[in-house]
Write a structure and sequence with these properties.
By secondary structure, the chain is mostly beta strands. It contains one helix and four strands, in the order E-E-H-E-E.
């Protein structure tokens, strides 16, 4: 039968604090202009920008005042005109076709 002896080990113990980058917020811009733009934002001393990405979303409102949206590419987005009427096909709440 093994016999164990509890022997304390004395060593230096260190405590330290590490600043870790983590996600904080997303800035967005929207409007009724023909030119997309990046939103203006102010960074504090402990913040940094992690990168930029873009999403172009078209919103459609029906005669019944229901609103549908569709994410499109920038080239598709440029082809749409504000206030112009479009015929859309909606399947299960998702816009599947858009016709002028």
């Amino acid at each position: 039968m093994p016999v164990y002896v509890d022997v304390p080990i004395y060593d230096t113990k260190y405590y330290y604090k590490i600043d870790k980058w983590c996600y904080n917020r997303t800035e967005s811009s929207s409007g009724e202009t023909d030119d997309p733009y990046w939103p203006e934002f102010n960074l504090s001393a402990k913040e940094r920008e992690s990168g930029r990405n873009e999403t172009y979303t078209i919103y459609f409102e029906t005669k019944e005042k229901k609103t549908y949206s569709k994410n499109v590419s920038y080239d598709e987005w440029k082809e749409f005109n504000l206030g112009e009427k479009y015929h859309i096909t909606v399947v299960a709440g998702i816009v599947t076709e858009i016709e002028p």
